């Protein structure tokens, strides 16, 4: 098995509320990333399927069903590479800002965003429940330990502990701020963590 592991970052023009269209964009981008770049993993932003920020659309009747159908469609049709895709996860406890790791036609892991921003233009505590812990998943198909999380801020003691645990740590952050570092980290051969090129 090759020692290399290619990650494609998919920065798409996702539309708030266009769940079917966003799922189509995810499937097309995954296929293109695998065919053109040889990507092993395609990383999409948080709330990919709903678009960001979905706000009160989350409470509209039928939106949950659209999200569930879109996630199932992506699971079935985007099998060219492993995918991390953001979506609103509906549970009895409430709605979570989640990211699913899809691999080989299965949902290998789901992570729930723990740090919900609630200042300036952000009002995530109104819509989402906070997740409780990081998600670390051993991905046997790619022989890598993969950690993924949705959180701000990106760096700090928690992220450093996660990087020590995982060979790869991804953060599908949707935020566009110049002070935020590259949100993908990998363990270098010497054992130190750093941003992926």
Could you list some keywords that capture this structure?
single chain; disordered C terminus; Nitrilase/N-carbamoyl-D-aminoacid amidohydrolase; 10 strands; five-stranded mixed beta sheet; 27% strand
Describe this structure in words.
There is one protein chain. 36% of the residues are buried. The protein contains four helices and ten strands. The protein has one domain (7-195): 4-Layer Sandwich (Nitrilase/N-carbamoyl-D-aminoacid amidohydrolase). The chain is of the alpha/beta class and 197 residues long. It has helices spanning 19-37, 63-77, 124-127, 157-165, and strands spanning 7-9, 41-43, 82-91, 94-103, 106-112, 135-139, 144-148, 168-170, 184-187, 193-195. The protein is globular. The strands form two sheets. Strands 1-2-3-4-5 form a five-stranded mixed beta sheet, covered by helices on one side. A five-stranded mixed beta sheet has the order 6-7-8-9-10, covered by helices on one side.
**Strands across the major sheet, in which order?**
1-2-3-4-5
CATH architecture: 4-Layer Sandwich
Mean pLDDT: 76
CATH class: Alpha Beta
Structural class: alpha/beta
As a percent range, the share of strand residues is: 25-35%
Predict the CATH topology. Answer: Nitrilase/N-carbamoyl-D-aminoacid amidohydrolase
């Amino acid at each position: 098995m090759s020692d290399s592991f290619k990650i494609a970052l998919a920065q798409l023009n996702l539309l708030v509320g266009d769940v079917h269209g966003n799922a189509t964009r995810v499937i097309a981008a995954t296929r293109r990333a695998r065919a053109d770049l040889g990507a092993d993993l395609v990383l999409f932003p948080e709330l990919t399927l709903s678009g960001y920020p979905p706000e009160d659309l989350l409470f509209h009747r039928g939106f949950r069903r659209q999200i569930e159908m879109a996630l199932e469609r992506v699971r079935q049709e985007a099998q060219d590479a492993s995918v991390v895709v953001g979506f609103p996860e509906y549970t009895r406890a409430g709605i979570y800002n989640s990211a699913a790791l899809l691999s080989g036609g299965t949902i290998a892991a789901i992570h729930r965003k723990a740090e919900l921003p609630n200042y300036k233009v952000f009002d995530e505590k109104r819509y989402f429940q906070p997740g409780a812990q990081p998600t670390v998943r051993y991905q046997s198909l790619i022989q890598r330990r993969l950690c993924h999380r949705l959180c701000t801020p990106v760096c700090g003691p928690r992220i450093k502990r996660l990087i020590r645990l995982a060979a790869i740590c991804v953060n599908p952050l949707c935020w566009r701020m110049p002070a935020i570092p590259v949100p993908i980290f990998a363990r270098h051969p010497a054992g130190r963590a750093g941003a992926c090129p």
